């Protein structure tokens, strides 16, 4: 369909950072044309008034998220809304025949109770949980291609799941004692006006938050349990550090009791082999470690491995851009799969290291 | 001695960041008078030429670290030198009757093999290891008072040991499976001219380093083993994050097998009780978590606790200034003990949160 | 009065950054005891709840700014309120016999029309303008000593006036063509929750604002006109740059037509002589230029001079901390004068350069 | 030539920040293929070893800058070398038939004495100065198309010249009294290992440098003199502020004596009209002011205008990315002209505002 033309795409909730980054990336994507931008707060104003960086480049007027309008104007819709809001609007878009990629947590869970426990919300359309596909291409590529509804992964889960996955294929590690420790740039909190995210109070500040029961924990557990074929739980601690963008995750995976030992070289081979067909996962050779600054504004996730043989502990480190592979360019990677474009279309930027 | 007067103090290696911060703090201490500043690189130049912030305040000329001169000019000497250098000069100062506080790793270890393994060096005066006191006042207050040689703790060990200590008093946690994950500001690397520490390459960069076998691991293990009364080992991972100053440590301590459960309130009581006489250790009530920005340029270490009951895991978080409680103001805390000044003299600054 | 005791001082509007910094500095001042902290927004809560850095150090409960209470609890009051609010409360404090140091613009102007034009407000008590003393010690030391009401200068005016003053003593420069170009750290905007001051949107951002008619222009003009003995006007442009604290001002002062030439050395001598008895004004020798990082958290203002002889232009550069000499420590300098303490009491901190 | 194919391009001096950014941009340009990367310091090593962000994307081996090799491997060469080095190698490349775009100051000047005075160097091939084209497309578009040697403008001159140019067309301003005040991100200093550019000493630091006789002054003067048709001189002051990238220039242009007045609206119209066919120059409507963060990693220069009618002063503000329009993407804009590609090819990225 749309031979010789571009897919018409709408972004619902276009004025948060996720929306902004999607506009930035899709505006130069060879296969999509943005035909609708919506915003509750800024309806009626040009997008470039909210983000003057887009002056002359994206001056479309922000509209209300009317499903009928969206159905007439778009082939696909991306929703970048808070959880609890997505679950209300997404079904109405699907009902009108649209395919949807959703950025919230509302459709990431296959199990209703897990969702309702993690988000403290009743889900209005639980039957969609079975249909929605978790949009991590490295794990669910084929399902994404044909999905009507894709739930884009969270930034922390992306960084953790891809660091854990290659370890679950055999009994190397004790998968019941995983610890995930993550650092996030401030944009991960969204377009925030709270004093805690002000320059004055975020610069020079490293701080943990949500240290017990962070919602992303359940999301990590769902995916690694599916990979392992049995229920797994893990410990997760997010931290805020003074970066605009970027995420660095450190995974602690103890050797299984039966494990003799493993070298960093062997681990590297394991990861390298696991991701050998993945363009956006870069496994670093032993001795090299990821750095969030190397993947800024790219879709790459860099993974490094180390082994503390004395302590019988595997350490895996991953770095991504929380607005890149952690959100927006990953969403476009899924959209490329959904529409048959090359998976790298529009998201093959190199990180900006300086 | 020195009734009605100030102790004369010398700083050997005064132009690194530790030296600078010592000058800044001691310059306003009621009980010390800086009578010697030495530097290999900048000998003969005024201190304020290297650090123009001190113009008009500390213009003393930097000298060579001649032991005879130091013995004549000073009552006490602080050495802020690289390891391997300290071990050469400190004995010569002691031999001349000076009391010394050393910032390097050279005298932090009671066991020679541990030192030589961690630092890959032969120690020229191993007999001093038995005499030197590990300068963490919260653990070794009485020994510090009368010590001739105090080894100032590393920043990471300070942040970790004080987070662990209250957990070791009974069988609450499995002390053989501790994981220490730390974030450090860039000044922790010293006055560095390497590109990796340049503004352009450190801003927006979070990165692990020294992820296996970092020297500070052995230092942590020595102290917690002494507390526990048996050899303990732990996993440690340092990270660099884009702050000038500050350190945030996250400790993962699994429940012991026999532990039923523990609440955050109980943990708080435990920590609060453990540190109730400590001015500089602030235990935060449940629900509050430390933030490195709150202790900037102070001698405080803030500690917060959390319990992940589902995962049977205690989490302890500590925040300090790597140049404050992690180095220089902690050194002055020890000097106060050594000289009989009030322990808070000259280091009772409130953190600069903004 | 208060022999052997400290002055009791109250801070009205204690939870903004100016209030916080005053608490931080006064908390360790030898001559003042904070006996009242007020806040409209946080009344009834402990100060340390708003600023956890002060936990255990300043836990006083925030109260309402009741004049009778303040009169009973305090000897002096500092008001750190928005303009238009100060002018309402300050007279009520004065009426109760309190001496007041005010941080707003409400009492900085001797001329009512100038105030009302700059601030677009009617002044409720214009007769106080004649009495209030502009609290710049370098210009109004004697008047401050005995003042009942001191109006603390703005940060930009402090940085500009002290850079201009030594040039006005003779016909060296064309004082009718002065240009003041200033850079401010983000804390200058106060404790802001606007997105424009968020870490994500302030980092990597340099931007002008208020480029025509900024209120501080009138304040600069008042003071330099008084010095020159005739009305002077100037051009002023403030910019926001990504620092927490700090201000850097560049003054462009063209040679007067009659001026033959002047060297940087001569300028240095002029400035050095002008400020030779000023502890907090440091004039840098030719070739050295100020750096905002060198005066962080201090009361110093560093001034450097240069001459572009080809263009017949004097350039003067000044650096201060907008919360230090630009606001709070300057206020304490004035309070020291008002109370007879040594002018440096409690504010002799060295800048924190790293 | 090269029908159906891409131009082969070489980068001499590929491991500085300019080289890195060129690799980043050219690597995704539709019309160029990088066939040679050279480096003196890192010869023999893969580019991605120096910049790991490019792992898997640009792993070419760095070579020595042998002119014969470059002539055989490339159609065009970009030189990103220090001044004084460029002037040695560029002629040898031209002699072998290559077209060259040079980033240094060595070929920016039409007048030999101006160059030798500004750079304190003898020029080895002064006859090339007459031939070289100053690579600012907005002023020299046609000459660039056919040039054999293009001298890429400096970042400060780009920001200043484009802010001044529309003011020179009539007698509105007094062009003999222009003041240019600029702020630059730290990457403008290049890939620096000096302590002054370290994170610890550049963060929180705003500082002037090169305040008299900065080389870029002569470059600005050359171009505005050519536009005005008579020799003009100006005052220029650069400052370093704590950003990775970005430049903000404030121009002060006094009204000419004969000028009655002008409004911001009229100025806006003037600028808008002057740049109406320029894709990369965005003139902001009155009331809006540029922000360096809005053009990060783009080729845009945003220009805003204001009028201080009281002081009879025009203020013009421009923002660009010092590695974008200030260096690398501007170079590609010129290369597009040289090769007949659309002027926007490969450099139509939107700024990254967050």
Write up this protein:
4 copies of one chain form a homotetramer. The N and C termini of chain A lie far apart (about 40 Å). Chain A has 12 helices and 13 strands. With about 350 residues, chain A is of the alpha/beta class. Chain A folds into 2 domains: about 5-130, Rossmann fold (3-Layer(aba) Sandwich), CATH 3.40.50; about 155-320, Dihydrodipicolinate Reductase, domain 2 (2-Layer Sandwich), CATH 3.30.360.10. Chain A has a 7-stranded mixed β-sheet. Chain A has helices spanning about 15-25, 45-50, 65-75, 85-95, 110-120, 125-130, 135-145, 155-165, 200, 215-230, 265-275, 325-340, and strands spanning about 5-10, 30-40, 75-80, 100, 135, 150, 180-185, 205-210, 235-240, 245-255, 280-285, 300-310, 315-320. Helix content of chain A is about 30%, strand content about 20%. At the A-B interface, strand 7, strand 8, strand 9, strand 10 and strand 12 of A face strand 7, strand 8, strand 9, strand 10 and strand 12 of B.
Number of domains of chain A: 2
Return residue spans of chain A where pLDDT drops below 50 for at least 5 consecutive residues.
none
> What CATH architecture of the largest domain in chain A do you see?
2-Layer Sandwich
Q: SSE order of chain A, as H and E?
A: EHEHHEHEHHEHEHEHEHEEHEEEH
Assigned CATH superfamily of the largest domain in chain A:
Dihydrodipicolinate Reductase, domain 2
Please state the overall shape of chain A, judged from the principal axes of the Cα atoms: globular
Distance between the termini of chain A: 41 Å
- Give the CATH topology of the largest domain in chain A: Dihydrodipicolinate Reductase, domain 2
Radius of gyration of chain A: 20 Å
